[in-house]
Amino acid sequence: MATTSNPRKVDEVRMEVDRLNAEARTANQLMEGITVLLNKEMLKYNWVGFYLLEPGADPPMLVLGHYQGAMTPHTRIPLNMGICGAAASSGKTVVVDDVKKDVRYLACSLETKSEIVVPIFVRGEVRGELDIDSHFLAAFADEDRELIEYCAQLVGKRLERV
Ligand code: SME
Predict the structure, then answer these.
(1) pTM of structure
(2) For residues 16 and 22, what is the distance between their CA atoms, to the nearest angstrom?
(3) CA 132, 50, 63, 160 torsion-angle sign
(4) Could you report the per-residue pLDDT of 22-71, keeping only the tens digit for each?
(5) Which helix (H) or strand (E) holds 157?
(6) Which of 65, 95, 109, 111 is deepest in the core (most CB within 10 A)?
(7) Count of CB atoms situated within 10 Å of the CB of 127
(8) Contacts 24+ apart (CB under 8 A), 15-24
(9) Interior CA angle at 67 toward 54 and 13, to 5°?
(10) 84 lines ligand 1 (CB under 6 A)
């Protein structure tokens, strides 16, 4: 069972995300700002990054974009691999409370204990995802999921304009 984040903190960060969205001139700036904000303000969000589908790639490929946290060996992930591939191919948020117990998990860092991956939709189709790793077991409760899905929705709306 995930431990609940401080609801006031989640509300504050959501307001900061709205501010970033109002100030960002491009989807890229918004994504960069979100990685910095979530990694800095949410203590259990130890790695925060975006993967976007490579345009025209066959088979489809997720490519690492802006991120905060340790360098990862997984800069390109096919859709049949990892938690990242599972979220992108199903179009559903995937929350893993204990990565050791999930055979799909691709290890990034030995410290990672739980993970959430939220797809980003553009005109109804998955275009990428927001991936967050935590050094704590079951770090992502319902309000975390809502906050992260909100960020992914804002980015999707921004990408619609491109
Ligand atoms: N753990 C992910 C790979 C990406 S790293 O977390 C940054 C996965 O299983 O797809």
Answers:
(1) 0.96
(2) 10
(3) positive
(4) 999 999 999 999 999 999 999 999 999 999 999 999 999 999 999 999 99
(5) helix 142-160
(6) 95
(7) 19
(8) 16/41, 17/147, 17/150, 17/151, 17/154, 21/154, 21/158, 24/158
(9) 120
(10) yes
Could you report the per-residue pLDDT of 71-130, keeping only the tens digit for each? 999 999 999 999 999 999 999 999 999 999 999 999 989 999 999 999 999 999 999 999
Token pair 């025209």 is found at: 56
Residue 23 token pair: 């100030």
Shortest-distance Cα residue to atom 5 of ligand 1: 108
Q: Please name the amino acid found at residue 57.
A: A
- The C-alpha atoms of residue 84 and residue 96 are separated, in whole angstroms, by 11
Cα separation, 159 vs 6, in Å, equals 30
Is 146 in a helix, a strand, or coil? helix
Residue with tokens 């005109």: 123
Strand-pairing partners, residue 134, are 114
Q: Which residue among 38, 68, 108, 132 is best mutated to probe the pocket of ligand 1, counting the most ligand atoms within 8 A of its Cβ?
A: 108
Q: Is there a contact between 130 and 156 (Cβ–Cβ < 8 Å)?
A: no
Asked if residue 43 lies in contact with residue 53, where contact means CB atoms within 8 angstroms, the answer is: no
